[in-house]
């Protein structure tokens, strides 16, 4: 529960400090609210894999501006090396996220990031990830529009 509260606090700080007085930019979401947000297995800035459920928590990743997405990644999912055109930051909310930088998803390049961990996805930098038997939930924030381009 601490990890969920910590991640949501980060989201509030990230989005709240940039909010104008308009109600469209003000968001307060409890864990129950987040669970009710529609999810998809594909979308801008995501892997498009069936084992990854994506919820847009703030903004629109297809348009210019700040966005935050939540990835719920099923156990034993492998996400191959890819890039995004925007720089992104991420926080692991729950589970263990095995994340690495480089052009090929190889076990020796992975670092295990437990709940509460933070990492970056610099624009254009190839990176990849895996989950183990517990899966993972990750919050990613960037400034869109974003994309996902897999390496050949």
TrEMBL record:
<feature type="signal peptide">
    <location>
        <begin position="1"/>
        <end position="20"/>
    </location>
</feature>
<keyword id="KW-0732">Signal</keyword>
<dbReference type="InterPro" id="IPR014710">
    <property type="entry name" value="RmlC-like_jellyroll"/>
</dbReference>
<protein>
    <recommendedName>
        <fullName>ChrR-like cupin domain-containing protein</fullName>
    </recommendedName>
</protein>
<dbReference type="Pfam" id="PF12973">
    <property type="entry name" value="Cupin_7"/>
</dbReference>
<dbReference type="InterPro" id="IPR025979">
    <property type="entry name" value="ChrR-like_cupin_dom"/>
</dbReference>
<dbReference type="InterPro" id="IPR011051">
    <property type="entry name" value="RmlC_Cupin_sf"/>
</dbReference>
<feature type="domain" description="ChrR-like cupin">
    <location>
        <begin position="49"/>
        <end position="145"/>
    </location>
</feature>
